[in-house]
């Protein structure tokens, strides 16, 4: 005769509830990470490191070592705020980072951008279906033939920001463009074009 199965204990219910909370927390954390990356260009244009620095330090989101050895290695605002945002994404601190932004005065437009990115991720059908491959073969000869036009059109920092936001280049590749030693070479566009060819990322700007 089969015995009746006992109901799950209260300990099991508690464990399952905690697991659901952990899964939900991880999912929300990833949601903010994605939203911040998808808003990278806008955040870089509308935030400053100066306005965030004290809160980042107070909430232990930025260590002295990270500030000195990474963020402030290049004391230029566009470089510092870009590295802060990348650090928050890379280290999984975007929920807390967005919380700081939410409390900044006169930054509702920034929060609107982040929230819009979150909503877009929840409704992928709203996203534009863009072709990720050119409709022709990209060869070294083709790039050389049209180098003059690319030379005039390329804005290395702007393109690197867009490519990082879209996930086409990594954190380190983006740093290589924005670091001051590289920017001097990249800003003549020749160095940047060579970077695109070397990393096979030229298809994303064609």
3D structure, described in words:
- Helix content is 67%, strand content 0%.
- α1 (10-38) packs antiparallel against α5, α1 crosses α7 (108-122) and α10 packs antiparallel against α11 (171-178).
- The protein folds into 2 domains: 16-126, no CATH class; 140-205, no CATH class.
- The relative contact order is 0.11.
- It has helices at residues 10-38, 40-46, 49-58, 64-69, 77-90, 94-102, 108-122, 140-145, 147-153, 156-165, 171-178, 180-186, 190-198.
- Mean pLDDT is 77; it is low at 202-206.
- It contains 13 helices and no strands.
- The protein is mainly α.
- How many alpha or pi helices? 13
Helix content: 55-70%
How many strand elements?
0
Low-pLDDT stretches: 202-206
Strand content: under 5%
Largest sheet: none
Rg (CA only) = 22 Å
How many domains make up the 3D coordinates? Answer: 2
Broad structural category: mainly alpha
Termini distance? 73 Å
What is the global morphology? globular
Oligomer: single chain
The helix/strand series, from N terminus to C terminus, equals HHHHHHHHHHHHH
Give the mean pLDDT. Answer: 77
Write the layout of secondary structure elements.
Elements: H1 10-38, H2 40-46, H3 49-58, H4 64-69, H5 77-90, H6 94-102, H7 108-122, H8 140-145, H9 147-153, H10 156-165, H11 171-178, H12 180-186, H13 190-198
Helix pairs in contact: 1-5, 1-7, 2-5, 10-11
